[in-house]
UniProtKB/TrEMBL annotation:
E.C. no: 2.7.7.7
Keywords: Nucleotidyltransferase, Transferase
Keyword Magnesium appears in the UniProt entry: no
Protein's name in the database: DNA polymerase III subunit chi
Enzyme class: transferase
Source organism: Seminibacterium arietis
Entry keyword Nucleotidyltransferase: yes
Length: 147
């Protein structure tokens, strides 16, 4: 199966609420994927970022609710969206990886579809270019979208 990576180019510079433009888009894309029946893993740079995403998803309007959990939380059923950071990760199979880390996650090869971002900040943009190169070297088919 072909591995596909989509990079979203972010043009907004203002954060919305407690999230950056990248994080807001990540939540929206995860919600869209869930509505299409996909299981999603959002991998964050750190625990604080994961907690912020968790809180933002809980604050959505009831009609926009997205079932999710943080890695390590005990749940009776598999939730469609898992938010993780560092090496924390449950073993459930996921269809889509949304990468918010500055590096390529070590477990990226266990996915066939991933989403990554090119932020406005120049230092973060350079890191995104490096991830893009790494994905290409691993044989991923790459595409870009406007965020």
């Amino acid at each position: 199966m072909t591995k596909q990576a989509q990079f979203y180019i972010i043009e907004k510079t203002q954060p919305q609420s407690l999230l950056s433009a990248v994080e807001v888009l990540a939540c929206d894309l995860a919600a869209q994927a869930w509505r299409l029946g996909k299981y999603v893993l959002i991998v964050c740079d750190n625990e604080n970022q994961a907690l912020n995403l968790d809180e933002a998803l809980w604050q959505r309007d009831p009609e926009e609710f997205v079932p999710h959990n943080l890695s390590g939380e005990i749940t009776k059923f598999i939730t469609p969206i898992e938010i993780t950071w560092g090496e924390k990760r449950n073993a459930q199979r996921r269809d889509l990886l949304i990468n918010l880390q500055q590096t390529v996650p070590e477990f990226v090869s266990s996915f066939n579809h991933l989403i990554d971002f090119v932020p406005v900040n120049e230092a973060e943009k350079a890191q995104a270019r490096e991830r893009y190169k790494q994905y290409r070297q691993m044989g991923w088919q790459l595409s870009t979208e406007q965020g």
